Amino acid sequence: MGTDISIQRNVYLDQILAERRSHRQFRPDFCSDDEIRRILHAGLLAPFAAAAVGNSHDYFRRFFVMRRGSKSMRSVHPLVMAQITKLSADLEKEMERDPSLRKRASGFVRILTRMQETGIIPGIGTAPHYIVVAERTGFPPAELQSLAHCLENMWLKATALGLGFQLVSVTSRMSADPAFCSVLGIPPGEWELMGCAVGYPADELSPSIRPPVEDVTVWLP
Ligand SMILES: Cc1cc2nc3c(=O)[nH]c(=O)nc-3n(C[C@H](O)[C@H](O)[C@H](O)COP(=O)(O)O)c2cc1C
User: Which is the closest atom of ligand 1 to the Cα of 208?
Assistant: First the structure.
């Protein structure tokens, strides 16, 4: 049996875990710098691959915050769109070589086509803030896993603050793009990237629905 405090802590934690959702519609107003700082601080508290980046003198995690309508946001949008166009063309070639891929990739191809047709990249300019998180590449490579932990912490904190959060995973395609990295002020290829959009949610979403634990768990003898 837990103490009252431990019960209460778990009630709050479970509530935040269940309320964490992918928000894709945002109100136009900007969050305060303090709210963004608190989200970034939660990201800093996430675990990192110490054995992989332990020797770097420079801190291995960085955040880049862009506001809708800003110079930086206007600069990165066409760069990401260019990568989406390239990715789409490369994928088409790959699907011609391997026809079985066409079926597996159909959902992804639809998303890429919609972005090219509409000129809209969900999360880049569709929310008040676009945040890029960078993790220095190390050995063995663990930066993408590390970034996932960081983004999850940020997501949970945004949820606790009543803010909407959306992953912008196309950001990871930009880590070797010289022009994109130049906007961030980092050398291309030395940092792995992931991104998210943050803002006040336009709608309230219902808590996550997941299968019961017992349906997806094997208790091995
Ligand atoms: C690795 C990864 C990449 C994702 N990329 C995107 C993305 O680029 N855009 C987006 O809107 N959602 C993205 N998502 C969110 C998932 O679509 C979402 O978590 C899933 O549909 C479950 O919905 P929920 O987050 O509301 O529980 C991503 C999730 C993961 C784990």
Answer: 27
